[in-house]
Amino acid sequence: RRDVLVLTPWLAPIVWEGTFSRDILNAQYLQKNLVTGVVTFAVEKYWFFIEGFMRSANKFFLAGHPVNFYLFTDNPEKIPHLQMAPENHLFVIPVQNDSRWQDISRSRVAIISSHIQSQFQHEVDYLYSMDIDIQLLAHIGVEVIEALVATISSWQVTPQQENKAHETHPEGQGDIPEGQGDIPEGQGDFYYTASFYGGSVSQVYQLTRACSEGEMEDRENGIEAPWHHESHLNRYLLQHKPTRLLSPEYFWDRAE
After folding, report:
1. Which of 112, 120, 175, 187 is disulfide-compatible with 208, CB 3.0–4.6 A?
2. How far apart are CA 87 and CA 33, in angstroms?
3. Domains of the chain
4. What is the pTM for the complete model shown?
C-alpha cells in the first residue's frame, strides 16, 4: 500500500489491511506451537458487554489457533454460558471492584502484572489486553504477534476530534517532556490507545510493571494522569519502542 505509512522511523512495521499475507503468517505460527492469551476486564456495568465481546473474540481473534481468554470481573455469577471453540479456553478470575472508575482503570496494569508473574507466564507465550466494550467484526490474525505491540489511536488520524494530549504534569510519571511526544506530519512517535496492546509475556510484564509503579508513585504524590494508565503506557512506549504497530483499523475509538 502506498496510501498509508507502513514503517516507523525506527523501522518497526505498521500493520494495515493489505500489507501482509495471513496464509503465510498462519503457516509460520503453527510451526511454533504457541498459545496466546487475551486479558479483559468486565467490572460494574461492563458485565453487560461480556457476551458480545466473547462471542466475537472467540470467532475472530486468532481463529484456529489456541487462545486463553482471561476475564476479570466482579460479577462472575452474571456470566452467560459461552460455547468456546475447541482450541480456546475461558478463565474467569474474580476481581474486587473500586469505588471510582478511575481507580478501576488504574488498577488494571497492576493486576495484569501480578497475574503474569503468578500464572500467565506458565500458560501462554504472548499476551494481549483488550477492552471489553467492543465486538470484533473481522478477523484479527497472527499478524499481531510480535515482541511488543501497540495500536495507533484513531485520535491521531481524525483531526476533527479533540486532541488527546500526552500527560503534561511535569511531576507525573506519565509525563512526556515537551517536544518528545509530538507527531509532526507523521514522523517521530505516535499516540497509542490502551484499548489494545500486548506482545510476548516477558515484554508485557515489563510494560505493566513499569506502568503500575508509575501510577503508584503518582498516587503517593497526589497526581492523577489525565488518561490514567493510557498516559503511562504512552510514556513507556516512548522510551521502549514497539516492535510492531497496529493501524487504527484494529481498534477504532468508540463514541461514548
Report:
1. 112
2. 12
3. 14-159+180-250 (3.90.550.10)
4. 0.86
